[in-house]
## 1
Amino acid sequence: MVPRGAGSGLSGGSNAIDGSLVVCVEKMRDVLLVDEGNGYVETQPGIYNTELREHVAQHGLWYAPDPASKDFCSIGGNVNTNAGGLCCVKYGVTRDAVLGLEVVLADGRITRMGRKTIKGVAGYDLTGLMVGSEGTLGIVTMARLRLGPIPPTPATVVAVFSDIGDAGRAVSSIMNELRPSMLELMDNASITAVEEWRSMGLDTSAGALLIGQFDSPGAASDARRLGELCEAAGASETFVSEDPEEAEMLVAARRMVIPALESAGDWLLDDVAVPRTRLADTMVQIQEVAARHEVRIATFGHAGDGNLHPTIVTPRGDADAAARALVAFDEILDVALANEGTITGEHGVGSLKREALAKELDDVQIDLHTRIKDALDPHGILNPGKAIPRW
């Protein structure tokens, strides 16, 4: 039984194996309840992230998690992978927004877990266990999600660096002093790909761009301070804007990286996260992987929480380059682990990284994963071959 929503995942989590029945929830798209007084929404899993955000905005409320794929990824998939996004550096990832779930278990029983209250510690956190389990423990049919007020128009700052290591070092100093609502990074390969795909006037000679936003009182002052910290770290230029259209254009450039790279050739996207103090070293080492295997790697991502998306692009149909790309992909995972990070920050393990997961977890954790899976799905019928090491 393989649950599938929009099918936009990047780790193969919703891909069926031989003999499977695909349980498609894409038509379960109703918003069941918007509780304005208590600040939550109950929704079916098939609705797209952007559609839900637009629906609750009509009530003057805001759903925070915003993956770069928000226009075509479903809420059910967001829950199953514990999706992040551009705003999670301040507002948290999907798990932080989930109050409760309705779940169909492997034996056919249906349960509603979680709560409607702000606080609640009764029993084990079964809701938290389900979030990010990639459909291996149950099938989500309803999500109760925390909402907040719509934030004010943000102040946006862009910093240009000649060296990607300097950009990485700037991130630590920024996050030690400020709390931006967004802090995104694009390296030279990402900048160039976007500019070649859809010209936006980006500086293709830059080694890296940092794009930050602040949406709280004093946003303009915080944005200027971020610029100062970037200049102290080696930025050659900074630019601050409070114009909404200009801000949207700058953020749109970051959101365009994946489609731009997709247009450039065959692509393989990675999703690693490291402590912020290891960000600079990690990005430099990823460049070394690219040079060692003679592949093009564009690194971009959520710098504020150390989540990078190194994306390998090879000429279409080039089998030798594709083979080198696979080796480079695995080496990037090793780079993340060597820098005290994780093999996946938000896209999930799926089938793509299942073997690598065994490198990250020790034997005790692997045993616990197996016991939990056995307890909830003893016959192994839920999304077999995904997310769980050695099951």
## 2
Amino acid sequence: MIGDSMNLQTAKENKDRQLKIKTELYHDNFQNYKKYNIPKAQLVIADIPYNIGINAYGSSPQWYIDGDNKNGESDMAGKQFFNSDKNFNLYEYMHFCSTLLIKEPKEKNKAPAMIVFCSFEQIPTLIEVGKKHGFANSYPLFFIKDYSPQVLKANMRIVGATEHAIVLYRDKLPKFNNNKRMIFNWMKWPRDNKTVKIHPTQKPVPLLKTLISLFTDVGDVVIDPVAGSGTTLRAAAELNRNSYGFEIDRFVYKDAKEKILKNIQMGLLTINRG
């Protein structure tokens, strides 16, 4: 009996070590998801456009050549981050998220969730639109930086040093792996010095790993409908989660594959967890 038990345990450990994780980034709009056969997700997490328009660099030194207003305006002056930002349809996005999240299971602590990074002003709209797509419940998250991108406003007023997100879910509270620790609704925004920056609103891998760890388990599926730099996929892969992302800008997509996901083979991976 003892020998049989040990053999079963060894078999389980070997199977665990051979867990296959998939990481895919598609150069396409998330609306075209059907042709990719993507499995439903435990967590959808994304940074949606902030709709700041042509003042995207308005408080940043990047507005000027070499960051100095004496040198005149740079190519970024009066520009939005991406041309696609103005075409972002929040209702289509919410419909996608509602469709691609798994159904709420009967078991406790198994329900899916959606996390949306957003501006503070977008939170009420996200709550309202979320409810129309079945996300009856939500709560905000606040992230505290030890720096501010609003350098040009530093001598004019108090500058912003926070980021915001909202957790949306249907009826049951989402899966929550807090390991009996109390998790506050504010967190420090860590600097990510290990990951090359290829996107103006790129989210740090360490922060994404914290959030993904809280709301998913090993082997779960994470989807980022507007993947940008691909750091969500990178964070998920490092945590042994399956991940799928969409990015329509071909230059960002190329950089994400070559600079952020370069050490992650696109396709099936064998993760050695032993």
## 3
Amino acid sequence: MTARGVDGSTSPDATTVRIPVFFVAGGTGISAETLGNLMLQQFPGLAFARRRIPFIQTVEQARAVVAELDSARTDTVVPLVFSTVSDEAIRTALQQTRCAFIDLFGSHLDTVERVLHVNATRDVGALHGVGDTRRYDARMKAIEYAMEHDDGASVRNLAGADLILVAPSRCGKTPTSMYLALQHGLRVANYPLVEEDFEDGELPRPIRGLADRCFGLLSTAARLSQVRGERRPGSSYASLGQCSFELRRAEALYRSHRIPSLNSATMSVEEMAAYIMQRRGLGDS
């Protein structure tokens, strides 16, 4: 399988050695990916080739995964493996890898057990939120809501949103919306600002009156131009002048309507989500 980039960073030079990184899990692997990437972000000068391997549910599967992990090791490169596998037998099998194995679940759970003087259930369903059916259903509904209300595709039931992300095109609305829905169960709509929205200084009609649920995203003109250029190279949409204009007017719009905002150019989705939730007083559902 191809490596899966998840941190939104720019691609390194083709000659840069990319360190293989694997996120392995008994469930979806989202927790391993999120926690592992938080650590990898502390090494901005290195290039990584990321891959998620989810749903490892038997010892036999674990042994096959170990063979795959070890095949990525070379004399000069040692892959990193971030694991949230909870089953002890499967975890033990995975630890036979010759790669660097970072156990994000087992070792820390042992510490919690010692402190609480209670043995953990080590239930995979509980780890991924499936054990709480009501919580799981709420998150699935939040994801459906975010998909329906992505990029202004629907304005139906905007009043039912916990949060409305507002921004010029390509400032990170969609990945942030989906992360907040998936990880925190929040019903997030996102609405794009286009040039005509800046003419009178008013919020676009569909979100007018909902400023108390809005949060604005910005970027730098250079970064926005680069991202747009990858989608529509050489277009006026991607020009530095157009990007500068839209960002200036968006910032003025946020300020006049007292909408909090952040610059997404150098922030990860995880950091953006945490900041937005704190500013808007939102918590997990």
## 4
Amino acid sequence: MAKVAIIGAGSIVFCQTLILDILGTPGVKGTEFALMAPSTRRTSQLETFTKRVIQENGLNASVWVTTDRRAALKDADYVIATFQVGGVQGFEYDYKIPLKHGVDQCIGDTMGPGGIFRALRSIPTTLAMAHDMEELCPNAYLLNYVNPMAMICWALGTTKVKFVGLCHGVQTTLDLISGYVGVPKEEIDFLAAGINHMAWFLKLEHKGQDLYPRLRARFEEPEYYVNEKVRGEVFRHFGYFMTESTGHLSEYVPWFRSTERAMALYCDEPSFGGESGAYYNWCKYVADKYEGQDILAGQPTTLPPRSVEYGSYIIEALETGKTFKLNGNVINEGMITNLPADCCAEYPLFVDRTGIHKTFVGALPSQCAALNMTNINVQRLAVEAGIEGDPEKAVLACAMDPLTSAVLTLKETREMVAEMLEAEKQWLPQFEGKTVKPTPTISIPKDVKRAHVPIDPALAIAARFGELAR
């Protein structure tokens, strides 16, 4: 019997999907689910539903709930992380405080001030969970679904835990590509690599034929281009299609959300197409709508087909030896040669009974690696800030963020971060007693004269040559 501990099982709709996937997995029998969250308000609903599914389908499985993380982790074979530290309230600060300062985010869970602060809140819990695993279930595999994926997995890379970060961006993007090029998704051969939410389809083929010419042609047709304006623009200019949608991608780069003109042109699509606060507004709506309700009551108990989420397929491969290929998030370790070895990268992996195995990709096209690095630089500073509790590195992470740096000065960024640290301090124990250093304001009189500073002779000569050239 395999024990699966779900840490953060209060995310009941997503956890319902994962549990049904595992219960419907061939060759995986006798699963014990330990559902952990800080309270049983929601996990009790999930427990009741799961027991109904087990009973009515005659399955050899069991489920129980706890608020004790260590109890859930003890002797686990698999750990699934789905928690969100701070919940909707923390998310509200992530969105509304930056917006007040001029940073307009659509999703706010991966990059930008929102993504950085979600990482700062989540890293202490992530590391505490990992250290518990090292003690209580050292051979277990951690399947991480917590965002921001790259930052959380980068932090996990400092521990001894065996982990992989899972995202469905590749699968859902393949659905879009399939529709654009008119080829069934299952028949597309591809290679995708980069970082989470910014991986690139380096190859797209159907029976040996390159599909990129057909995809490029589609994006020059208005009725196709309009579906994915931001992703389409990056595709047109960088030459490769990316794994993240317009709403997400608009936050990771400086070109689409930094002016009203750009917002109106590229971020006007409905349903997370780039509109301000789209994901926060949706989460708040759902939380308010179902507050106090048992949303799983009356749900059908018939096992549905397995979803596109990778989790159950990884467990199946480890339990049965049936090889499974996926794109996962792990420490790079030189598999992508022009990204840092210690960063979290997303690239092809395969799983069998012996474990999760990395594959060598080589170098990304230089322009793709360059765009990835603009995000990796932010991720590094955010992870260091989260682990060390260094408010100055939190400031610098936001200062290096492509969107933030496109709309705020350094002083404005510092003021925004100071406000966010104060608002979210209840979830940021590593920053206790630490504050952002204020930047003094220097008043410059209109009649001030420049100070006389001795000039290096060599610089004076260079300056003189510059004048002559003009």
